[in-house]
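Record format v2
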Amino acid sequence: GAVVSQHPSRVICKSGTSVKIECRSLDFQATTMFWYRQFPKQSLMLMATSNEGSKATYEQGVEKDKFLINHASLTLSTLTVTSAHPEDSSFYICSARGGEGQPQHFGDGTRLSIL
Amino acid sequence: RKEVEQDPGPFNVPEGATVAFNCTYSNSASQSFFWYRQDCRKEPKLLMSVYSSGNEDGRFTAQLNRASQYISLLIRDSKLSDSATYLCVVNGDRIGGFKTIFGAGTRLFVKA
């Protein structure tokens, strides 16, 4: 089945640090990748959608200068949380989709804790 | 009205029970449909795709009714390991950019 690798799985760092999360589709080409955030006991919240080679589309209320997304190839997207603060602590999950009618396949998620 | 609506539950059932989840969607032009499960503090995992002709995978059966814009998931002979949140997911049409909409999920607890 389709495999999506997300790295790192856990990050603990000081306030003000920038954190980079990688998302790779290992056995398929992902025309579209998605970044989500999930707080405890809440639903997935879509942050942004990225297509290879073009700028990401951010959801309302998500600051694009704070959450930098790069989708450099059909198998790699990165999310950089710039100058992270405690309120950015959350579970960040990426997903990748091979085509428009296809399901999304999720990475294992990154648990980010900002002290 | 939410674009994808699910009963949040929780559903508390004994082992061996049959449980059914329902989901409705608002965009009649939606193209594809899926059920995912999400365990606590984990990522969602694709459970199965949903077709009008029905889709069965072992103890799990999914069904789509396009006329009623309704999706169902039936779990037979529930196991303790089925305890999770089940997410109904709908992919939109070309006009909507094939946007994926997730339901809020239905929580299932299977008890011994």
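The radius of gyration of chain A is 13 Å.
Chain A has a mean pLDDT of 93.
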